[in-house]
Amino acid sequence: MPPEPPATPSLIATLRDRAAVRRYSPRTVQAYERWVRRYIRHHGGQTHPRHLGPECVRAFLVHLARERNVAASTQYQALAALTFLYRDVLEQPTPNVVGVVQAKRPHRLPNVLSREHVQRLLAELRGGSQLMAMLLYGAGLRLMECCELRLKDVDPERGEVRVRHGKGARDRVTVLPASLRERIEQQVAAVRRLQLLRAARGGGYVELPGAFHRKSSHASRGWSWCWLFPSRTETWHEGSRQYRTGHVHPSVLQKAVPAAARRAGLVARVTCHTLRHSFATHLLESGYDIRTVQELLGHRDVSTTMLYTHVLNRGGLGVRSPLDVGVADRPPGWRGDGAGRGPEGEARSR
Known about the structure:
By secondary structure, the chain is mainly α. Helix content is 44%, strand content 8%. The strands form three sheets. The chain has a three-stranded antiparallel beta sheet with strand order 1-2-3. Strands 4-5 form a two-stranded antiparallel ribbon. It has a two-stranded antiparallel ribbon with strand order 6-7. Strand 1 and strand 2 (160-163) form a beta hairpin. Helix 1 runs antiparallel to helix 2, helix 2 (26-42) packs across helix 4 (72-89) and helix 6 (127-139) runs parallel beside helix 11. The longest helix has 20 residues, at 181-200.
């Protein structure tokens, strides 16, 4: 990787500060940093973005669409990053990108597994990965929403899972499967034992959201704030001078689910998000109204949830194929391979 120009580190530092003021998520900040670096390198790597005009922004976006052949969402993310760079970091007018060749946004349907295939997939998982996958399917959680669950967010008695600061910084309540209540209680007990063990060795701290650590500093060792799925190791946090326990890294489940799908013999492409798609589709198949499913998924617009009505287990658009009509009325020798059978049992062709 080529060395960064001298202005880049200070520019990235300013970007992080401005993003923190706007309360952007860490993953958004990381994505914006990558796009700013790629933008600078695309134009030689030595010119400060302050001296790159709107034509440079347009050229970069066209390069992504034509030469890199990126998806439309990727191009839009790059545009959002550059808009934030000029508007909030450099405090310059937002570049005019009229005339940019836009990557085509395809209309894709989500991958959905049948109930049988979901059970086969879950049976191939073990331990914490299996419990996390069960929550993705049983509660309709996104991957990071599951990783960032804390003990206080799960209520087995009420059968609820509270998602804090989900996509779009919105909280919501979804269902906790009754079949998982005993396993959740066992997981909570295991986390408490781990936290006591690490606290006895001088660690056992967890990161608290926002400025809550100043309001209630002792809460960083409280059970209620512990991660439901903690990481196996502690890390030293220089700022607080503490050994902290983070949540399990999302890549653990991202690797485990496709591997389990291969062992289960599933042909379809399976990711963690496939379980969330299957949750929504199976609820609609069971007769739940779409507004209820929308609330459980945390969609802002019901049109997003409507996508799952196109993948219900009823064939294409819910249409019954004419090949399946009148099955009981077919002649005894009908095979469907182009050869009919006459009354005397002899093959005939026309």
